[in-house]
Design goal:
single chain; 86 residues; mainly alpha; 6 helices; HTH cro/C1-type domain-containing protein
């Protein structure tokens, strides 16, 4: 049996995503603008922000570019220290 070392981890940091959206100018936070720019529906976007669903890779990339945040940061990888390999 393989042990799940990642049990309890979030795929993306939804709070960080919400915070990044909150920093955008008001016009860019409107679902109409998001739908036009990212081709993501309002329910889909709401689900991403609330953690009810995760974006596919293409939508994840679009979100990162839209809110100007690195993929590593949104995945929670920027705070993980790498152990040196020998």
């Amino acid at each position: 049996m393989i042990e799940d070392r990642f049990q309890g981890w979030l795929v993306i940091d939804h709070e960080l995503l919400k915070s990044a959206f909150a920093k955008l100018p008001p016009h860019y936070r409107k679902y109409k603008t998001i739908r036009a720019e990212l081709k993501i529906g309002p329910q889909q976007m709401s689900d991403y922000l609330e953690g009810r669903r995760y974006p596919n890779l293409l939508n994840f990339k679009k979100l990162c570019l839209y809110v100007q945040i690195s993929a590593d940061e949104l995945l929670g990888l920027s705070s993980i220290e790498e152990s040196p390999t020998q």
